Amino acid sequence: MRKCPTLLIFYASSLLVLQTLNVVNAATCVGSFYNGSSSYGVNRKNLFSTLASNVITNGGFYNASLGKSPNKVHALALCIRGYKPKACISCVEKVTQQIQADCPNRMESFKWDNDDGDNVSCLVRSSNHSTFKNLTLGPAILFPSALTIEPSKNMTIFKQEWDATVNRTLEAATKAENSSVLKYYSAVNAEFTEFPNVYMLMQCTPDITSRDCMRCLGDCVSYFNKQYWGRQGGESSRPSCVFRWDLYAFHGAFDNITRVPAPPRPKAQAQAPNGSSIRDKKGRSISYGGIIAIIVVPSFINILVFIFLIKFYARRRKLNNATNAPLFVGSAEYSDSDGQFMLRFDLGMILMATNDFSSENILGQGGFGTVYKGTLVNGQEIAVKRLTRGSGQGDLEFKNEVSLLTRLQHRNLVKLLGFCCEGDEEILVYEFVPNSSLDHFIFDEDKRSLLTWEVRYKIIEGIARGLVYLHEDSQLKIIHRDLKASNILLDAEMNPKVADFGTARLFNTDETRAETRRIAGTRGYMAPEYLNHGQISAKSDVYSFGVMLLEMISGERNNSFVGEGIAAFAWKRWVERKPEIIIDHFLIDKSRNEITKLIQIGLLCVQEHAAKRPTMSSVIVWLGSETTTIPLPKAPAFTRSLSQSDDGTSTSGSDVFTELTCR
């Protein structure tokens, strides 16, 4: 029973010093001093007064500057993901006041605040130079727990499990695949074999790169290990990131975190022959009474703590439910029938980002609305699609696109950041893709010369990979239905991104074909069985891909071939064994055999009978192989119904598979 007092002291002290880490600590002041009579201090005070409100309206992260050099002040504020607006405002206000008190005449300062009582973590940082998008590693700040872990036979196991938890948390924090403004974040509750659960949190400012975030957090972990390994928790922070761990849930970040199991438990030690005790590795005897006490006493204390926490969180939830929190930029909410999280943007912020939908910011215009370039106050560039007011077809497209793109993530699909639905405004917010759409290049005599064969090949392959994801690899099975050059966006490296999912159709995973009475898409790119009979399948997209591939090779629009279309024209040249006639004159001296192979693939994709067309996964195989035998194509459909809609406009359908509620 000699172990019992030690364990009682350990658990009791752990409960009594939950706030050990969070003693009031001063802000970190660096950089040169400024004259107290200069306007730098006034500018900082005025800028600080706006941080708390603006960090809420910007989704948890805000960056701004005020004044003119040399008294120009740059500042940013950040709240932990999942914050409550009131707690975030309180945290930022408290930190700004503390910085002004602790650093009255210093140009640079920062402070990560982790007050467990507020259930929120926040950062405020100021400088006389821009820190936005710049990794800053110094100075490094450490706040270790006052308690140490008692040395035991299992410290080796603890270290192994602790390192594994660090790696797991670091990997999750730096993935940055989600669309949240607060993208670099992870909180883990890990079950350990011989110790209480370990709670670990990592967060970086979202303006730096994923690689910089990994470096910053890695340095924080290494610094803590070097200086304070053996403590029962601690925090290591730098201006661009923070790392914290402890043996208790230090704030609300862990309310809904799923426990992560530890590695398998080591094999139990052998029982002593007399049955009254067991022996450890060093042969020391431990009585069964002592073992029972070791298990029962801390378990009883944990039960009491657990009951207290249940009552506390039940009361807090009741209070939260009674309060209607304001809607803010980037707030995640359930808005569709499948319970998918969608980011709702505030209309005021979109108006500010686009300069009230200024005509100077127009990127393009389509059948459903206008696309504007915008810049959020944190510097992030966005593309804003404002749907035409009062358009019933636009309503359907809006709901369809939001519902789909919240479920799809692929490097060759455009990323939907969120939406806005206020009054009669319906707005979609996308990542900004700087090189506009493919049709601005391929059908422009001057810009087309920029599309070398290598670039065109990369674009064709990227589109194909995006379609394979939609048809086969995503959790959903999606038929795009409106694939054409104007719906392919090009990023800064000319990588393609399939866009405009307003008329897309969801299929069950085991469904291969369906029929619809409402045709959606663009004439000239529609497969004949779909245009004439409403039969839709993945092969409908394959047909559209084939038309677009032939356009990429020829540099000509489908409707430029009067009376027949590009598929029929290419087929005739193929039969005549003169495929080079359709090759763009900018490519005529390039890889003739490779280009001819792609003409063959294009003709296979536009064959009249859907069953004869290849799957997009087959197309990927053919594109990447020089030895695979490619079948010979059959004749495409010669009949066309281009009429007035072959100029690139779309015909809308209403195969909307889910409902989005806008309030």
Automatic annotation (TrEMBL):
Segments forming domain Protein kinase: 357-623
The entry's keywords: ATP-binding, Glycoprotein, Kinase, Membrane, Nucleotide-binding, Phosphoprotein, Receptor, Repeat, Serine/threonine-protein kinase, Signal, Transferase, Transmembrane, Transmembrane helix
Topological type in the membrane: Single-pass membrane protein
Domain Gnk2-homologous: 22-131, 143-250
UniProt superkingdom: Eukaryota
N-terminal signal peptide: 1-26
GO process annotations (BP): response to abscisic acid
PROSITE patterns per UniProt: GNK2, PROTEIN_KINASE_ATP, PROTEIN_KINASE_DOM, PROTEIN_KINASE_ST
Record-annotated membrane-spanning stretches: 286-310
Reactions accelerated catalytically: L-seryl-[protein] + ATP = O-phospho-L-seryl-[protein] + ADP + H(+); L-threonyl-[protein] + ATP = O-phospho-L-threonyl-[protein] + ADP + H(+)
Main location: membrane
Segments forming a coiled coil: none
Binding site for ATP: K385
Protein name per UniProt: Cysteine-rich receptor-like protein kinase 39
